[in-house]
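Support reply, case 0932

Customer input (verbatim):
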Amino acid sequence: MRNGYFQLVNYENGYGLKLFPPDDTGDVLRVGEIADYLDGYGIAYDRNKLEMMVMDEKEAVYFLGNEPCPVYPESYMLDIAEDKMSATVRFIPPTEAGSRITFDDFLRDLRLRDIVYGIQMGDLQEHFQSEGLYGKDIILAKGKEPTPGVDASIEYFFNTETHRRPRVCEDGSVDYFTLTTINQCKKGDALARIIPEIPGIDGSDIHGNRIKAKEPKRITLKFGQNIGLSEDKRTIFTQVDGHVTLLEDKVFVSDVYSVKDVDVSTGNLDYQGSIQVDGNVSANFEVKAGGNVIIEGLVEGAKIIAGGCITIGKGMNGAAGGMLKAGGDVMVKFLENARVVAGGFVHSGAILHSRVSAGTEVIVEGKRGLIVGGYVQAAKRIEAKSIGASMGATTILEVGVNPLIKTQYTRLQKTQADTMKTVQNAEVILETFKEKMKKGAQFNESQLKYMKTVAALVEEKTAELRELDIRLEKLRKMMETQKQAEILVNNEMFPGTTIIIGDATKTIHTSYHYCKFVRDRGEVRMMSL
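Our regenerated output:
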């Protein structure tokens, strides 16, 4: 492959510029490069004529004068990137009687220009060992990008995943106690260790200036009471028997607070760790735990709040006042007239006339496996054997939107509407003021100050509206990504049930068996399992 280039040569009792066109794959001649060369030596020429000859793409000589051809040595054009991370060179041949630059002289020039790092010898050596690589951008030097370090990390020696499901037995019953979400630990057990950071490797630009690698992040172990730190400060271990939890990147070890029943003998419970209730929780009492709550008996119209998961062995009759609220999962034998909010999934044997919201799934299985009445909501999936009732109990199922995101979206919509109303009212005041000014009305200092306050309010609230629009759009996109949700019926769905998937709604008017419902082309559609 030959690129297009040019050379000053003797020509017809004088001298001229010989144009060497490229071959089929080579780079074309650059008129600007030729013009810069001639201008640099003060040689007169006709730019239009030169451009026409270059465009002709034929070997030709452009006559420049009757004098002998000047003697100029080989030269070059150097281009250094703005970030100093690379440089290219284009060599220009000497005139017909001129001399070529030597490799040593060229390297000496580079040192004078402070180009000392990453010299690319390949094409350079080929140029100096051959008749020359002219009309070609030769990579002269390359800097080295720094290699970033690897951040430190923490390895935990206990299960940090809290979403675990109970086991369904062969007879259809559900064992809520075989699988616990509590990570038991014994005195002396290692809980976590730091994996140290790996330093980065510095880079360099072509001038030899060091480019410092990004420092890797160091990390420290965050932990609460009952935990010891090793001598090298890289490992933590428990100093007591108990259970370990990870909350907001901080490790806690605490003894499980255990009681027989929650009633007048205990009063309300509020504990940072986990709570174990061996019996029942009576109506109107409250159990609040930073970790998990495990209740082996029955919960009446009480309030149970847990930062982790809630497990209830004999179910809950909320009497329209009971509530379960968990940051993680809720596992309960049955729910009746209860209110449930879970950050994770809800698993039950039956849900009767209750209002249930789950951050992931609602699974109702076991011998009965039914949902009758109420409102059941989940981000991804609702699954049950039987949904609704032959007597036509109003049952509403909704999937496709995380309940927490939907609540936040609704709240922001109200804020947006209120803010917009404020802006509109203020703009009416400002418009009235401007109309009066046009008609020559005079205003005192207090009135003018009030108008400035109103104008500032409009500006402030308008900025708030822009921010609200951005936040609402983000939430809209989050809700859009969750519309691939489904409702599974493992036996029968009765008429009177309402299904909501994303923004699509369908009321069931006939019985369906062994099927699932999904959102397809903007509508709720039934599909076979």
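We compared this against your earlier run and they match. Two observations from our side: The chain has a mean pLDDT of 89. Residues 403-438 form the longest helix (36 residues). Please reopen the case if you see a mismatch on your end.
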